[in-house]
Amino acid sequence: MELTQNRLYTFADTIGFATDLAPLSRGVQYLDKCENAYFEKSGSIRKFGGELKVNSTAFSGAPNVTGFYDFWRSGTSGSSAQMVVAMTADSKIYAEQAMDGVQTDITGAATITADAIPYFFVARDTLIILNDKADTPLSWAQSGNVASLGGSPPAGRVGIYHVNRPWITNTNANPSRLLYGSSTSVTDYTGADTGTIDISPEDGDRILGLAVNRGRLLIFKGPNKGSIHVMSGRTVSTFVVDFLIAGNPLQSMHGLLDVGNDVWMLSDTGIYSINAVQEYGDWKKADITPFLKNFFRDSINRSRMASAQAINYEDRSTALFCLTPLSDVENNLTLGISYTNPQKLKYFTVPGRSCISAGIRIHPTTKLREACFGTTDGFIKRQDVSARSLDGAGGYTYRVRTPAILIGEVNKAGQEKIDQPVNLRDLLVRSESVGNYNLAVSIQRDDKAEQTFTIGQGGAGFVLDTSQLDIDTLGGGGIQTARINEPVIGGNCRSVIIDLQQSGANQDANVFEVGLKFNPVSESRATDLEDQTQ
To answer: Distance of CA 113 to CAs 65, 87, 104, 382, Å?
Structure first.
């Protein structure tokens, strides 16, 4: 009697989507594809939510929404007021009160270069608006039209509010100069309480990003060679800038993220962490996408990295990076990095959604922090909503595909025998009963034709022509285990590829693990078994 061996592969153990690892694996240690799927804290892989319009009517002319900002102003009334401010490619600025459908053109007399990408930051209850074309800085305080920022502010591209003063950098004349305004006014940039700091000038790079971490200002240069500097001190007399590290140039003024006590940055070769823990007096820099070098090299349009945008979607413990695919000219590919377990980051992609710009908006009713994308047709769209369909496009495909999993029997010591054929008996899929939706499960044995089966997700059974299936429901109907067994799946093999897909509009999927059952096969029987399964 042949001993049946079992292998259970949990997605909690994977590092998610990876492009640089071998096409063969002894287990599901990584995924060949992980599309429209994110990682739950439980370790399961859930279908990424759909999208809904935030502004019910498109901005006039349906232009590209090049940037937007969820602007809250505390005021003096004892309550905060929320306005969503958006810039469009046709040189307009709009405001909506919590996106209530009433869009107000607040451009006024402002001159804005077409296709400008804005950079927003708040200082002293004033929204300051810069852009990548280095136009005149604008300001807005939730009434009337935007206006030129008073005083003599620099026409920079990036800014931040730090130690109670505005900082602006990357002007045309001085791309490596950091200028700071007064600690009492957002319009004073020339008085005694103001000044400038040059950061490695004329080194072939510009200051592309600013971030505050543990009370200090981090200064990022790019997009060519790259360097990072850190400024300490809280007053003009105590400001001190130190060189931190060279290399890994920042690519986009929207390529920095605050993630917990850390800062993540988008470089030309991947995404890096600037670890806030000091080691021997120095900061650490870590590559957090070590297995995605081919993705950054071959799958994205590197000439458009300056247009990339990134947001920290904290409600899902996930960072989202909006990029342009290699063959496209607009952002419509999102790379997700799940940090539900900070020691084991996991990666996925969300393809096919327009994401010219990205931001976090606090929902005015639920107060949830929602990931939102600006699109090419004049809308801001909420992402990852429970209705799993795309606005105007219907369904999309959840896909989780493994590399070729090498299967081998084990010896008496529990060690795998290498490249020994086995007789595959069963494929098991454990998932949550999320609704009466079908999950397509494909399996490919070695180089044989792929077989596809259909599993119901409602906990009530399966649809598979005349094939025999078993189902167990665990946890009060919440978790089900599906088994696709002989004779339909039986056969000789050394490796298998498992591909899970769910494409229905407004349909869900949430898979925890897959498993295999097989019998060892001696080499003398392998040819006979192969003949039976052709």
So the answer is: 14, 11, 20, 27
Q: Residue 58 burial by CB count (10 A; 0-12/13-18/19+): exposed, middle or buried?
A: middle
For residue 57, give the DSSP letter.
S
Measured distance CA(273)–CA(72) in Å, rounded = 29
Q: Tens digit of pLDDT per residue, the chain (534 long)?
A: 456 788 889 999 899 999 999 998 888 999 999 999 999 999 999 999 999 999 989 999 999 999 999 999 987 788 899 999 999 999 999 999 876 778 899 999 999 999 999 999 999 999 999 999 999 999 999 999 999 999 999 999 999 999 999 999 999 999 999 999 999 999 999 999 999 999 999 999 999 999 999 899 999 999 999 999 999 999 999 999 999 889 899 999 999 999 998 999 999 999 999 985 445 455 667 899 999 999 999 999 999 999 999 999 999 999 999 999 999 999 999 999 999 998 899 999 999 999 999 999 999 999 999 999 999 999 999 999 999 999 878 899 999 999 999 887 666 665 666 667 888 889 999 999 998 899 999 999 999 999 999 988 876 444 344 333 444 433 445 788 888 886 788 788 989 999 999 998 999 999 999 999 988 876 544 444 444 444
The CB-side HSE value for 185 (13 A sphere, CA atoms) comes to: 13
The distance from CA 370 to its chain's CA centroid, rounded to whole angstroms, is 13
Interstrand relation of 24-25 and 404-406 (parallel, antiparallel or unpaired): parallel
- Residue 277: φ, ψ to 5°: -90, 125
Q: What is the 3-state secondary structure (H, E, C) of 1-47?
A: CCCCEEEEEEHHHCCEECCCCCCEECCCCCECEEECEEECCCCCEEE
Return the amino acid letter for 263: V
Of 505, 437, 427, nearest to 468 by C-alpha is: 427
For 95-135, give the secondary structure using H, E and C.
Answer: EEECCCCCCEECCCCCCCCCCCCEEEEEECCEEEEEECCCC
Note whether 217 and 231 are within 8 A (CB).
yes
Distance CA 373, CA 133 (A): 21
Q: Which of 182, 194, 251 is nearest to 220 (CA)?
A: 251
Q: Which residues 6+ apart lie within 8 Å of 48 measured at CB?
A: 36, 37, 38, 336, 348, 350, 384, 388, 398
- Are the CB atoms for 18 and 400 separated by under 8 Å? no
CA distance 121 to 128: 6
Phi, psi of 270 (to 5 degrees): 150, -160
- d(CA 286, CA 291) in angstroms, rounded, equals 13
Residue 95: burial class (beta carbons within 10 Å; 0-12, 13-18, 19+): buried
